[in-house]
Each structure stands twice: as structure tokens, then as C-alpha cells.
Give the backbone structure.
Amino acid sequence: MSTKQPTDNQTRRRRLAGTQTLAYLGCVAALGVAGYLIDDPYIRHVLILCFLWSLVVAGWDMVLGYAGIFNYAQLVFFAAGAYAVGMLTTQAGVPPVAALVMAPVVVAGFGLLVALPCLRLKGEYVALFTFAIHLAMPPLILKAKAWGTGGALGLYGIPPIEIAGITFGPRDTLAWYFLTLIVASAAIYAVYFIVLRQRMGRAFMALRDSEDFARSLGVSDFRYKLLAFMVSAAVTGLAGALYANYTSVVTPKILGNEFFLLAMVMLAVGGIGKFPGAVAGAFIVTIANELLRSAGNTRLLLLGLVVVLTLLLLPNGIVSLRDRVLRLLPVRRPG
């Protein structure tokens, strides 16, 4: 009995992982088919934003929900990826495709610089430090105009990407739809189905639950916290790089309160550390935000109300709604 039980558990985990993988690939395939069926450029634009935001919250969910690090500088990594592409292409003359590949690497290095001081801090002090970085970035960008940031005006005229003879211009929403779908789905798959299911992911969750117990098992908190920051920064930087290429414009407004609040709402509504909650939250909040555009300033108030109701009724996000429904269903007992 003692040797059979672990084998049964491993079998169940493999089956569950296989089911989740098939469901995920099925959703990606359905979105691919939808791209061909949707004729309205505006709807495709909204879905492109959904793909980009899902990348942002996936990276944030990994470091906050799974690694348990209270990092509030995630939008800084997004802006760093956007500015990296803008400065490499407009200032250094780097080809757009090469800049798109280089941007996540540059942002991962920036994530390392942010992570090193955080290793000396704990809990809420990490949150305060990273939020201070978020607040310090806009004035730093304004002061660094001589370095190629463009100052208050930002960077305009970022050249379009060209891949296999296809030019991804800002108005070509169909090409951008499939590019962002492929890149975002591949990166999200790498985060949730590869990184978090391997030794690295188990180390993240062990450190989140109990650092002392994780150290007793030989888990290096220094090493894995650095990796969490760097991988999360790279994924978020990739989203920022795609955003810059898609809009062909980068300004300091990218670090405004609205972007930060939207990302927080996505995590709260979807569910932190509970796949696919964060990704689902990105789609729900992005679409809701677009539908509420006509509401003006009331839009953020309504989104805030949604967060309050979600926290009161579904503390673990909408992903916990499935568990509540299953509890209400009658249980079939053997015999």
C-alpha cells in the first residue's frame, strides 16, 4: 500500500496536467479560428490588448501568486520592454525583429538589479521598495531625455516588424492578432506548464509557503528569488516590447495609475496563484474596460466596485466559482 499510493497520485497528476494542457491548446485553437471569423478591426484590437495584458498578469502572477514575492514594480518591467524596443530601433538603428528579441533579455537584467536589494527585505518592505521604484520611474524617464527616452514627448515612429515578408503595421490588426496570439500563448504556456511544473516552480511555492522549511530541503532562496524576478521581468518585458511595436508610440503615460490599477484589478478578479485565473481576469477586465469607455471617469469607479464585490463574494477570484458550483452538485456515492 505504501508503494502504490504515490504511484496513483503521480498518475492522477499526469492525467490532470494532460487535461489542462489539452484544454489550454483547445482555447488557443478556438481563438485562432475566431481571428479568421472576426471581420471588425476594433474587436480584433480589443483581443490583441487581451493577449498583451494576459502576458503582463501571467508574469506578475508567477512572482506574486506562486513565488509569494510582493513585487509592485511589474509595470516598470512592461515600460522597460517598451522603451527598450523604442530606443533600440529609433536611436540605435537595431532592426525591429532583433529589438523584439533583445528587449526581454534587457528587461531580465533590469529585473536582476531590482531583485538584488529586495533579497535583503521581507514581506511588506519588498512591496514598499518595488512600489517606490514604480513611482520613481516616470520622473527618471523625463530626466533621461538626453539618453534617448524622448522625455515627456516619448518615442514616436517605432518602425514596424517584418517577418517572412509580412509587415506588421499598427493598422494591420489581422497580422497582429495572430502574432500576439502565438507569442502570448507560447509564453504563458512556458510559465504555467513548464516553469511552474518543474523544480523551479516547486521551489517558488515552497519558499512562498515557508522559507525556513524550504531552506531545510536545500532550496536556495537567493537563487530562486532572483530567478522569479528575472523570468517574470522577461515575460512582462516581452509584452511591453510587443505593445510598443503595435502602437509605434511609447510615452511616460505607460506608467500611469490607470495601467497599474487595471493590472491589479485583473489579478484580483481572476485569482492570484490559481491558473487560469489571472489570464481569465485579463480578458474579462480588458473587455469590460473597453465596454465602459463611454462612462468616462466613472469607469474606474465601476471597476473598483467589481473588485470589492469579487473580494467579498469570491476571495480567490472567479476561478473559485467552479469549486463553489461543484459543492452545490449532488455527490454520487459508490453503491
Notes: The mean pLDDT is 86. The longest strand covers residues 161-163.
